[in-house]
Fold:
Amino acid sequence: MKKFHLISLGCAKNLVDSELMLGSMTEGGWQLSPDPEDSDLLIVNTCGFIQPAVEEAISEIFQLVQIKEKSAGTRIAVVGCLVQRYKEQLAEDLPEVDLFVGTEAAADLATIIDKLEDGSLESRVVLPERFLMNSGMARVLSTPPFRSLMKITEGCSNNCSYCMIPAIRGPLRSRPISDLVQEAINLENFGVKELSLIAQDSTAYGNDLSESATLVELLKDLLQGTAIPWFRLLYLYPSGVTDELLQLMADEPRIVPYFDIPFQHVTDRILKRMNRRYSSQDLYDLVVKARSIVPDIALRTTFLVGFPGETEREFSEIEAFLRKNQIDHVGVFPYANEAGSPSEFFQDQLSKEVKQERCDYLLQVQAEISSEIQKKYIDRVEEVLVEGVSVETDLLLEGRTQYQAHDVDGCVYINDGVASPGDIVKVKITDAQIYDLVGSIID
Structure:
């Protein structure tokens, strides 16, 4: 049996594509190998969303090229957003790569590889038509069996001025509710206890379908059709968060009280330049409303600092917003021009140094805020989904509360008690760090 090695880069949505690739290759008779040097085919699923991701992907490709040079007959396939964005340019710049495949071929990768193998492939660059996954497609989970991701839409129609996703992934395409419920059932049968709903904009779910297809209706059907304990909502657009959605979260304990809502900025002028469809006041009102309907909700957001024309005063308004609203989890990124995006041509571009200084400063502010927020959990008893032995030391277990998303937020270090990965246990929190919590399992 021929062996392949797969590297998955980028976001959670890209990871789902990688799992479809794993399913396709496995069904196609290939065996996954953890060792790239012991593989006949080297696959890298790339991200091309921002320049650092592009640079990471190119670096990975060069490392695979070095492996290929040492092993006669090894082939390299580059897949995903980088290919969809740069197309034939990559084939010219990287002659060592045998195959380039766009974002729309995740579930059909083995068929394309077969054509490469038998010499019937007409071009090294394959860009299939737009694609939408379904629950019947082969998928091999790369996450632990107790948590998984479910991509509810593909593409995006928001057209933010700094973003290339609509050009790379196409317009919004929503999966039918019935198909998503079936996938959730499949995942529950596999052992999933936490299912995160993901999309470029989860609140846009169903906008391209009938009026009855909304995020709220999807959640209701998921709750009715499965017994999965935790549903988590990621990547919500601020103006898409409705009272009905918040009330459903308040009424249904299986929807964890957690929202990931990228704000990107808080001043009207910059938000307008970003082509974001809400105002500064809308954001202040949203935080108040969310906490009034779901008092225990944890909010996560991201900010893009150093956008073209951002003044010192406008930057300081982000700090004021954070200090006033005490957001639980915050990511901060320095703005970078993306070739082809409208904001690439905006005047008043800021220097790289200024953007990084603002990013570093805001992260320091949030660290101070987070350190105080975390203290509220001390002496509380929280349900914790156990991930397993801690990556820090094998003397501790590690898990997450409902208020912590995997990979982006802090965790809970469990220093007393016994549990297995995937268990949901009650933990008394005894200490709080800047981002992490410490506690012991109680009966």
Notes: The mean pLDDT is 95.
